[in-house]
Amino acid sequence: MTAAPGRTGRAPCVAIETQGCKLNLADAEQLAQAFAAAGFAVAPAGQPTGVYILNTCTVTHVAYGVKQQRLQAALDVAAGLQAAHLTRFVGDCRPVVWGAVEREGGGAPRWPGFTDNYLRVTTVSERLRGGEIAMARLLAVEGATPTGELMS
């Protein structure tokens, strides 16, 4: 069986990428030792892991530019993983605790809520009350939030 990204066998996994000066290299080595002592497997930089540390120095504009590029790449990967995770639940019917109504410009009332597995979901409804628990079918993912329809 293949281990999930971020895990090596049963140990959580960390990768540390260093951009910058020699002091950064020493810091990265100390971080790797501390994570290893805490039971983490330490993977080479660039590997998919549960924890990824980008250790940078912004003394030069080149290092700053590299940091910004790497940060954006990491954010893009995280957004893709989040969307894939949320899409797994499309079509499911789940109990939702509905919060307070949000009305945008006098339009239909939009209700935010949380499922039993902690997904934030929204729906449009005239019949909900805040704090109510009602079943909803998750229909689609819009941005980072699934939308749902109330079950009869």
Through-space gap between termini: 41 Å
Q: What is the total tally of β strands?
A: 9
Count of helical segments?
A: 2
> How do the strands of the widest beta sheet line up side by side?
7-6-5-8-9
| Shape by Cα distribution | elongated
* Order of helical and strand elements: EEHEEHEEEEE
Low-confidence stretches: 1-8
Q: Helicity range of the residues?
A: 25-40%
In percent, how much strand structure appears in the residues?
Answer: 25-35%
Secondary-structure class: alpha+beta
Which SSEs are present, and which pair or pack?
Elements: E1 7-8, E2 11-18, H1 22-37, E3 41-43, E4 51-55, H2 61-87, E5 93-98, E6 110-115, E7 120-124, E8 133-142, E9 145-150
Parallel strand pairs: 2-3, 2-4
Antiparallel strand pairs: 1-2, 5-6, 5-8, 6-7, 8-9
Descriptive overview:
- The chain folds into two domains: 7-87, no CATH class; 93-150.
- The protein has 152 residues and is an alpha+beta fold.
- The relative contact order is 0.13.
- It starts with 6 loop residues before the first strand and ends with a strand.
- It is 28% helix and 34% strand.
- The chain has two helices and nine strands; from the N terminus they run ββαββαβββββ.
